[in-house]
Amino acid sequence: MRILQLHSNFIEYKPIQKEISAAEEAEKKAVRLEEIVVLFTAVEEGDNIGVAEKAVEEISTFLKKLKVNRILIYPYAHLSSKLAKPSEAIKIVKAMESFAKVKGIETFRAPFGWNKQFTISIKGHPLAEQSRTILPSEIKEKKEEKISEAVKAEEKLESFWYILQPDGKMVPVDDFDFAEHENLEKFARYEISKVRASQQMPPHVPLMKRLEIADYESGSDPGNIRWYPKGRLIKSLLEQLVTAKMIEYGAMEVETPVMYDFQHPSLADYLNRFPARQYLLKSEDKELFLRFAACFGQFLMVHDTQFSYKHMPLRVYELTRYSFRREKSGEVVGLRRLRAFTMPDCHAFCTDLEQAKNEFITRFKLCINVLKEIGLDREDYEVAIRFTKDFYEQNKDFVTSLAEIFGRPVLVEMWVEKFFYFILKWDFNFVDNQDKAAALSTDQIDVENAKRYDITYVDEKGEKRYPLILHCSPSGAIERDVYALLEKAYKEQQKGKSPMLPLWLSPTQVRIVPMSDKYLAEVEKIAEAIGSENIRVDIDDRTLTLQKRIREAEMEWIPYIIVVGQKELESNRLPVRKRKSGKIQKMTLEDLIGEIRKIVEGKPFKPLPIPKHLSQRPQFYG
RNA sequence: GCCUCGGUAGCUCAGUCUGGUAGAGCAACGGCCUUGUAAGCCGUAGGUCGCGGGAUCAAGGCCCGCCCGAGGCUCCA
To answer: Which of A117, A145, A284, A470 counts the highest number of beta carbons within 10 A?
Structure first.
């Protein structure tokens, strides 16, 4: 930072015209200030808040010598040839202003980004004219991080916690009897006191590796995951299911860019209201960030969209592959918390609070259904509802109706003030084997962003109005759904049951094990018959013992295993080893196909993405 | 991000304390076995001991820095 510091009798300046698009708003009016120290200031590349503070510190010492306590911060680019970006410079200039005010200095500031004309009269004493250069200190620069205002605000956030019962009674968490709500207690403790018992690795991590679903990729950044064919299949099916449900609900699927310009005015402002850390990207002279949700793209799109109350609620949906959040390294674990993840994100633009509330209920039910279809029942997760005190007091019945629909007590977090851009949100939380909670589905009522992005609709009277925006992820991150399914399977195993994935997600649904290669040709025909019914079937044609092949099929969590030998070919009845019951049941081929078709009815299907014959199959892990 | 622990064959791990020739099981590959519902037998091959630097005659082991993972702290819109 370079400052030309002039002790003046007076300065008179007048903004003439905006020089850059990022310029501040200002009146084209002459300003005259007397007996003042004028600071012509150029913010240079690499300057940060620390520099602003240091500058004010130095100036303040100097002001005392001069016995003056008035300054004018006058943005003046011509002092440096390596200027900071305007958006950065304006922040630092503003920071200087507030630091100075805090120090009790009477502070004025000329608008940033304007051509200004000025007249100045400088005192003649030896200290009247000074030039100073302030550089960022090395250590501070390294530690300095782009943390949004929301992240900082959150640190100061004060919450009050309750349990809301389906009958509408709200009990402070400490007074609630958790006897029959063990998971809710774990979730509440996790949210509030952050106590956790676990000493073990998250069980889904060895599982995701051993089942050849996914693995860490050390060649990338932490939290960027590698998906093997079976994992890709599972993830892809989940993506298809969620998308199908959203289209059925009436959402319009779109696709938007993964990276955005840091300088864009709406975006920069929004970044500061969203508590997430970003990946930054430099491309030529542009600074970009990777999206952490679909909000940006959808809002920019809807900003340019013509719509009226007749089209509302207007529902826009995108499956973001990926969304990026640079979570703190200590937080990134397995598939629970990633830095790059696939998130379905659906916004509904609503005319007023009444419509928003109706839509909110529709989506609440929709999300319960989406999780159920995925394989997560109501018993598998806990609900949190979070709101401002004002909202609750004006909408008690509405809030209660959510708990009523869910049918079990829910955790409530109440804020005295609005810290975020929303007034109400809920989230469904999976409690895992380490007693840690992870949010899946969520929805919120946003009261700020329509204005920020200048999104308007036309009402009955033909007037432009700002809609309310609902932000919903119907399933939460897809990776997190896989995490929840694996953790759920592990829980089942702890209870003595055979762990498994839902049938529609099992990579191999039916495995046929021929007694020996004599029966291969016949087995191919059976596999053909099953496969033609959109059932994923494979054949263990390896020359291993039968027992070994059964064991491996069981370890792969295959739902149906059929051994075929002489007897089967003669009898026409297949001994089907069912994982779910743990029993071998004799069935005809038609019965087996019928049973599977019934269980997976209405679910997406994709063929097996690996060789049908196990002898042809590579091993990705272990 | 901080503290603690860990990283040795594709996988799971021993060896590190006390420096002195790189180990096992599983998997892979070759062969035998042609099997009746959760591990058949024999053999072969497989290693920059996470990466970089240092002290030492000598480092997987000791010291320093970094990367990756786990637990805790913090955080989780």
So the answer is: A470
Going from the C-alpha of A491 to that of each of A204, A432, A485, A488, A500, the distances in angstroms are: 10, 8, 10, 5, 11
A78: left (phi over 0), alpha (psi -120 to 50) or beta: alpha
The stretch A470-484 carries a mean pLDDT of 96
Residue A570 CA from chain centroid, whole number: 57
Assigned fold of A503-616: Rossmann fold (3.40.50)
Is A200 (CB) below 7 Å from strand B?
yes
Mean pLDDT taken over chain A: 88
CA A68, A73, A79, A80 dihedral sign is positive
Find the Å distance, CA of residue A549 to C1' of nucleotide B41: 17
Rounded CA separation A285/A528 (Å): 58
Look up the pTM and report it: 0.79
Question: Any idea which nucleotide's C1' is nearest the CA of A544?
Answer: B35
The pLDDT of residue A276 is 67
List chain B nucleotides near protein: any atom < 7 Å from a Cβ: 1-3, 10-12, 26-28, 32-40, 67-77
CATH topology of domain A2-138: D-tyrosyl-trna(Tyr) Deacylase; Chain: A; (3.50.80)
Nearest Cα to A252, choosing from A312, A188, A293?
A: A312
User: Which tokens go with A249?
Assistant: 């609900």
Q: For residue range A431-461, what is the model confidence (pLDDT) as tens digits? A: 999 888 999 999 999 999 999 899 999 999 9
The whole-number Å distance from A374's CA to B27's C1' is 33
Q: For A529, phi and psi rounded to 5 degrees?
A: -60, -40
Q: What pLDDT, on a 0 to 100 scale, did the predictor assign at position A138?
A: 38
Which of A216-225, A234-243, A496-505 shows the lowest mean pLDDT across its residues? A216-225
- The domains of chain A are located at 2-138, 159-195+203-486, 503-616
| Domain A159-195+203-486 homologous superfamily, CATH | Bira Bifunctional Protein; Domain 2 (3.30.930.10)
- DSSP codes joined into one string, A63-132: HHHHT--EEEEEE-GGG-SSBPPHHHHHHHHHHHHHHHHHTT-EEEEPPTTEEEEEEEEE--STTSEEEE
- The answer to whether the A159-195+203-486 and A503-616 domains have the same CATH topology is no
> Is-contact A511 A537, C-beta < 8 A?
yes
* ipTM, two decimals: 0.92
Neighbouring-strand partners of residue A119: A12
- List for chain A the helix, strand, coil content (%; round to 5): 35, 30, 35
pLDDT at A113: 80
User: Would the Cβ of A218 be found within 7 angstroms of any atom in strand B?
Assistant: yes
* Bridge partners, residue A538, by sequence: A511
Token pair listed for A576:
């089907």
Q: How far is the CA of A493 from the C1' of B40 (A)?
A: 29
